[in-house]
Amino acid sequence: MLYHQQPTSLLKKIANSWYALILPMILFSLSARAMEKDENIPIYSSVPPYAADNMGSNLNPPNIGLPQPLVGFLPVIEEDDTIFSPTEASSQILLEDEKLPISHRLMQSYGDEEIAPKFGLALDGGGFRGYMEALWLKAFKEELESDTSEDNFTGPLSEVFDCIGGTSIGGILSLGIASNIEPDELVALFEEHGNSIFPKGSWCARLKNLGGVIGSKYQPQPLEGLLQAKFGDNTLKDAATPVLVTACTTTGKPKLFKSFFADDQGHKLWEVARSTSAAPTYFPSYKLTTHTDFFVDGGIWNNNPATLVAASMVKELHGGTFSPNNLYVLSLGTGDMSLHTTLSTDAGLFSARNIIELLMSTSSRGNHETMQTFLGETYYRVNPLITQKIDLAATDKETIRILKASAEHDLPMGVIKNFAKKFLELRRG
């Protein structure tokens, strides 16, 4: 399932060229490796290209299986059923990961018919444009609650998703959902606090840092105060469902905060949220009280965490066994800004923010293309094309109007409704 208003010519070329998939494969491989201390867990990123004539629409892509993996990966043992399982030795590695809580270590391999459907949620980074993600989460919750059957779903969204992952503003929203904060409250955060987090500022303040050219453009105190008010002293251990959040150290090392990773469980939620949202030139880096490194925005290396969510679900929830028929991922973007992220051929110092936007956009696209071939029709992506340039920190009324109109368009809302329908259908069995 896909809402992504782009011409299909490029996608056709991707579908017809094996080599064009190499970059997404590498991105997926690097994302998987970022799961610290999990290097021994095999992650599968070798997938075949398929015809993409309908990739630019909401039509279901064809059902795909996984071919023989690259040399060094484990062999496919149930090719007809599109399932592959780890070898006995690799399964033992899965069972002996002592850094994981016991509930995540007692895993075993299952056949396709024995694996219950699992649902993942991935939220892109994109500053204030994450307002659209909050609106979609609210619409998704309303769609679930509109079900009039006797066994209708009335719980929090943390009970829908088996794993939630986010980057930057998507990381904040992910932690919010994992903390059972209602979607309408998340929407209100943007509408009521956007201007205080991204103030226009005085001329004196702008001159002091040259608008973000030297030092960060915004002071972190308003954001930090809001995060502390919402999350309190809760830690990752308190998350109601498995959640992962991306960040990056100032030395360039990717970091993945995971609620199901013992070494991360003591980190306070608000500090993790602050770390993932420290976008360079916008906010200063952040050092957790429980960590020795300084962190910046996770969008630097992985702005669309869908691959991380899928890999974690395969490893932690399916015990290393994978079937695309039982793995559903809803991936929410913050708008395709590709029309506005082209760099000049001699980009310099004052192109820094455009470079950051380009990095984020490239990361999101690469992971999106990987997920399309990895899951096919069980991957639901919402990322409308934005025809007007909207800065990460734009919070004015016109920006809110544009974002809301884009989010409430029939096409993205159709994908949200279809995912809700699929969840309710599979929930009833």
TrEMBL record:
Signal sequence, renumbered to the chain: none
An MF annotation (GO) of this entry: calcium-independent phospholipase A2 activity
Active site (record annotation): 168, 297
Keyword Lipid metabolism annotated: yes
UniProt-recorded name of the protein: PNPLA domain-containing protein
Coiled coil: none
Motif GXSXG, chain ranges: 166-170
